[in-house]
C-alpha cells in the first residue's frame, strides 16, 4: 500500500530553500529598472499639533526625488482596518513618537533614510500633554471605542454570599511580533499607468488591495497584491502592513516609477503596534474546594492611538476568560484605552491569551489561599457534562480537558515531581524550583462571522501535474504544504505532483486574513472542494472508458482504476483534454453554524475548540532573579493531524513564543517623552534556542475532531501559545518557595529578573 499523503510527517515545501538561503522574500525580488526607495520621517513627540514641515530642506538632500505629506494623498488618508481613524501620514495631529509624518523618495535606500532622519529638525509642532498608560487613559475615560460588557447569571449576589473572596489587580505587558523579515512593500506601476502591482509582505492581501485602492482613489480591480511568502507575521502583518503598501503605492503612481519601502528594525518597532498589554482588576468568590462561584473582572487593554483591531481583540479576550472552566456567575468589562503610543494590533492568540491568563492567575491565587494543589483546583473547575455552557452562550461539545489532563499529569509524573521539588527547596537556600500545570481551551474561527470563508483554484495540466492557488498566505507555518497534501490526497497523486503558487488577489478574490488559526481549515476545505469537482469530471470520463459506474472509479498512487482496468493519472488527463473535459475548477468554503451578536456578546462564534495542557518546571536564582524553564511536558490537541511534524513544530514554537512573552520580552516607554526605549534587538530580548527547556517533551493528543473539518484536523497556529502560561506560573511557584506557606507572590509579567526579585522580596 502506498504511504498516505495526508496525516504523514512531510517537510515544509520550502524547507530546502529556507535552509539554503534560496527562498526569495519580497526584498529578494529583482528590482525593476529605475526602482526608487522610500523612507519615513517620524514624529519626534508623543502628542501635539503639527504646524509645518520644512519640505524644501528635505528636497535639497542628496538623492532625494520627492517628498510626500498627508496633503499629497489623492484618496483616503487612512490605513485603519475597521474604523477610519488611522492616517497613513499625520495630518494636523501628532499621536505618538514614531508616527509617520512624511515620506522621502530617493535614488537609493540609504539616501532616503538619511533625508528622513531630519524629521526632528524639519517638523514644527506644538506639544500637548500625552497619555502614555492604559490605566491613565482608563481613569480619564479615554477609549478608542465604547466599553464592552458580558454578564451571565447574578455575579454580585453570589459574590456577596461566597464563603471566600479574592480581590486582585495585575499587569501584563505587550509583545513585539519580531518577525525576522521586517515590513516591506514594492509597488510597480503597470501598463499605461492603468494598474498597480504591489509585492507586499502581508497576511491579508485583499485588505492591502482595498486600502491601497482607497488611498490612490482607484477601484480595486486596478490593484493586484501578491505575496509568495513572509519571513514571519504573527499578526503584525495582518493590518499594519497597509501603511507601507499605501506609501509605496502612492509614490509609485505619482512618480511613475517602481518604489520600494523597507523599514529598518528600529523604525519598524517605533511605527507599528504589537500585542496589547492588559491591566486587570478582579473580585472572585469561591468555596472551600476552590470552585469558582462568581467573578467580576475588569480588563483594560492599551489600544494605542487608534482602534485598529482592538475591538475584536477585546471581544476574544472576554470570550476566553473562561479558558477551560465553568463560571456560573460572571461579569466581564472590557475597556480599550486610547493612549499616545503605537496602535496595538493582532498577535498570535488575538486577545485569547490576555483573557485566559487572568483566570489562570485567579485559580493559582485561590489554590494558594486554600493551601491546595493548583492542578486539583483547576480540574474541579473544568467544564463537564451539565456544566458546559460558556458565558457567551456556546455549548462546549467536546469535553477534552479532563482526559487530556489525566494523561499529561501521569506522563509528566506531576505528583511525584511535586514532592521531589518540595524536598529540593527544603534544602536549597539560593536556588528554588517551581512546578505548574495549565490547560488550554481555544475557540477556532474568526469572531466576525463573515470572515470565515475561503476560495481556491486548482489547475490540472495535461501532463498530470497540479497547480493550486488559494487565499491563504505562507508565513513559515506550512500552510501551502498542508493544502498541497489535501489536493494530492483528493486526486490520488504523489505529493510532488502538486504545487501551490503565490497568493494573488487577481486569482482568488475577497479573501480573509491568514489569521485566527483558520488557514488550513478554510483554505484546505476550499482547495478540497475544487479538487473534488475536477475529480468528479475525471471519474465520469474514466467510467465511460472503463465501462463501469463513476462511483467505482478510484484515484490512488498516481493511477486511475475501475472495472478491472487502470491507467496513469497523466494519461487519463491527457485523454480528457482531447475530449474537452474541464481540467480546472474553483473551490469555496464557508464555515457553517456561526453567528455572533457583537452588541450583546452572545452567540456561537467558534466552530470548535482546540485543547491542550503543559506542565513546566522552573529553576530560580533567588540572588539574581534569573530563571530558567528546565523541563516542559506538553500534550496538545490538533485533532487528526494533517502533518504531525509541522503541527509539533507549531506547538513547540507557540509554547516558546508564549514563554518569551511572559518571562523576558519587556516593552518600556519613556515615562515623559513617550519614546519606546526597547526598540531594537539590543534592548528587547526574544527567546532563542538557548531558552528552550533542557527537557522538552511534546506529544499530540491524537483524537479526531468531532466537527466536520478538513480530514478531522484542528487548527494549531494560536492555541499552543497559551501553553506558556505554565512557564510563568512555575516561576511564581519557585518564588513562593522563598516565603511562608500559603504566600502568593505578586509576580508581574513579563517575569524578568527584576520582576522575580520584586516578587521574592514581597513574600519574604
From TrEMBL:
InterPro entries: Ald_Oxase/Xan_DH_a/b (IPR000674), Ald_Oxase/Xan_DH_a/b_sf (IPR036856), Ald_Oxase/xanthine_DH-like (IPR016208), AldOxase/xan_DH_MoCoBD1 (IPR008274), AldOxase/xan_DH_MoCoBD2 (IPR046867), AldOxase/xan_DH_Mopterin-bd_sf (IPR037165), Xanthine_DH_Mopterin-bd_su (IPR014309)
EC number(s) per entry: 1.17.1.4
Top-level EC class: oxidoreductase
Domain Aldehyde oxidase/xanthine dehydrogenase a/b hammerhead: 20-127
Keywords for the protein's UniProt record, in alphabetical order: Oxidoreductase
GO molecular function: xanthine dehydrogenase activity
Ranges annotated as spanning the membrane: none
UniProt-listed NCBIfam families: xanthine_xdhB
Family annotation (PANTHER family): XANTHINE DEHYDROGENASE
Protein name: Xanthine dehydrogenase molybdopterin binding subunit
UniProt lineage: Bacteria, Pseudomonadati, Pseudomonadota, Betaproteobacteria, Burkholderiales
